[in-house]
Structure prediction request, 325 residues.
Amino acid sequence: MDGRMLASGQSNAARPSRQISVILRNQEPPTISQAAAEPAAQPFGKTLPQHGHFAEIQKELEQLIGLDNIKELMFEIYALLQVSQMRNEAGLQTGTQVYHMVFKGNPGTGKTTVARIVAKLFQQMGVLSKGHLIEVERADLVGEYIGHTAHKTRDLVKKALGGILFIDEAYSLARGGEKDFGKEAIDTLVKAMEDYKNQFVLILAGYNDEMDFFLQTNPGLPSRFPIQVDFPDYSIDQLIQIAESMAKERDYMFMPQAIAKLKQHLQQEKTDSLHSFSNGRYVRNVIEKSIRNQAVRLLHQYQQSSPGKLELMTLKIEDLRLDQS
Prediction:
């Protein structure tokens, strides 16, 4: 699936937004690598040449399961920035690129994680003067009375200057129709994108259909987001890889029977949840609940002694009580 698609579609039922945070990054100066040119573009899944700052970015991307279209897009952006610098040094016209983006996909598909990596890439390549990432939601933008929303939105844009403003569940700004203060936030953002051109990058994120509908609420929106990326749901095998990786990071491991049970449960959950399945987020919740269940099991099992290291690490089938909330 191509990661850069134009908006189209209908709106689904609105879903509640969630609280997010602020991440600050330090700036590093841009560099030009001396790698030899490749005869043709290669898919990200194949070996790519190690280019300067992108070698560090690539290590982070390789840790992400799936998301091949996003990984390829990241290298395209890096290549464009590198070649633009080379053209500038050669006295050629470079033109001005717009990097505002729309991330479309279900929860837990890596949108926020990729936004952080984009901020790091732009920081290292000198696209933005600061390279920080500010994550906000509807409540951070929308005020309680006329004029309050525009003030709150402008303040956040000013804080994001030199960096990235990431609006999660951005479609929620269009929920209330013409009289809702969310429309005022949209109008203020559109004006800020013109007033502060090339001084910050705006990334909007949310569900596919809702984001397509959102982009239709203001005629100035679609053309201002030349990079629109689909974040597909993970396959069952990819979700199992994510589960095993999350467990390993915490010094846990699954017994084979537990993996088989989890795989069957995830298949059923994806079928039942349809568009609301939360992918990696759901897997993380399962892991954390299973770890709590394991702790209770071990305390009951070893009342007069301590379990060994292997027992402390092992998540068994009885720890995956997936029928419980």
